[in-house]
Amino acid sequence: MKNLTLLLAGSALSAVLIAGSALAQTAGQPAETRRPNAQNQTPAFTGQTRAPQPAEMPKISHEVVADGLPHLWAMEFLPDGRMLVTAKEGVMHIISEEGEAGPEIDGVPEVLSGGQGGLLDVALAPDFATSGMIFFSFSEDREDGNGTSVASAKLVPDDQGGGRLENVNVIFRQMPSYDGNKHFGSRLVFGPSNELYVTVGERSDPEPRVQAQDLGSGLGKVFRIDMNGKALPDNPFVDQDGAQPEIWSLGHRNLQSATLDGQGRLWTVEHGPRGGDELNRPEPGKNYGWPEVTYGIEYSGSPVGEGITRNAETEQPVYYWDPVIAPSGMAYYDADAIPEWKGAFLVGGLVSQGVVVVHMDGDRVAYEERVPLDARIRDVKVGPDGAVYAVTEQRGGGESTILRLTKG
Ligand SMILES: [Ca+2]
């Protein structure tokens, strides 16, 4: 009896501790303990949401490696170990290995930085070491509205820690334009054959968002293009009348996380509706459902469309989050410094204020782990040292920092 009393007291204590925090740090239990927003929805298969935490969770510490930065959106490591960053307002900087930001890079084109727009992602060309070529996405002001565009340029560093862009060339425009300030995406990822994946959004409002299902529209898609912005000849819709040939997959909402896995395959995490963020491995020509088939509910609380979470014509997400993490930035961990994370995806969480570690078993999620950082995480990268670098932002646009996460 005494033992039972102790046991009950222990359980009550755990329950209180868990209730006091959104995250439970107990192996085998899901990290997320809050009620889902979509109370009546159920996953299509075991492990599609709220996967358990792994038995081995490394102790992670973090330090600020750079601060006092403008509102950053993306970061890439240069071959020399420095970091190239984009800031939403439309500037780029090179940050030294000591964490000092150089002067603004000259020649960055005007961007539309209101709302969710701005200078967005940056990617180094696969041959950057010899060509100096970079690719970047941005919200572009246009005569008939605005939209996400992709430009290429040659980055020419100077010896003051800055540099300039030469031969800036807009190679791709998401069409149609729309007069709004939401859901521009975007991320840029080069595949193993130098193909460039471009993720975008569906512009959020009721009128444009349905175009995520329309192959004649570039809203709510993943594109696959060459370095001149042209559709690749083996894209899935190149021979279909009325379809945009650059489309790789459709039915997406707002994609701000993308990376390749160890096999060179594209994975994405997208901002879903309230309770519907999702991890996908976009395959050519496949339909990922939005806004007709989705988990979650509208931010107003009403169902999304007919409230359908599955049908035969659309792909189920590999994984979904309800409540949302608000994903931005993503990396595949293939380094040795944090062995427990080998083969996992690291996803930045704006609302979840940390890094979400998604451990895979084949193409399914086995475990989910959270690293709380008390800051909105806009981008995540693995450094040449095997540490994880997380870019923070402040809502409303205060200063950003870059954090370095290490084991121990
Ligand atoms: Ca979906």
From TrEMBL:
InterPro entries: 6-blade_b-propeller_TolB-like, Glc/Sorbosone_DH, Quinoprot_gluc/sorb_DH_b-prop. Residues 28-54 are annotated as: Disordered. Residues 70-397 form the Glucose/Sorbosone dehydrogenase domain. Residues 1-24 form the signal peptide. Residues 36-51 have a biased composition (Polar residues). The keyword Signal applies. The keyword Transcription regulation does not apply. Keywords: Signal. This is Glucose/arabinose dehydrogenase, beta-propeller fold. It comes from Xaviernesmea oryzae.
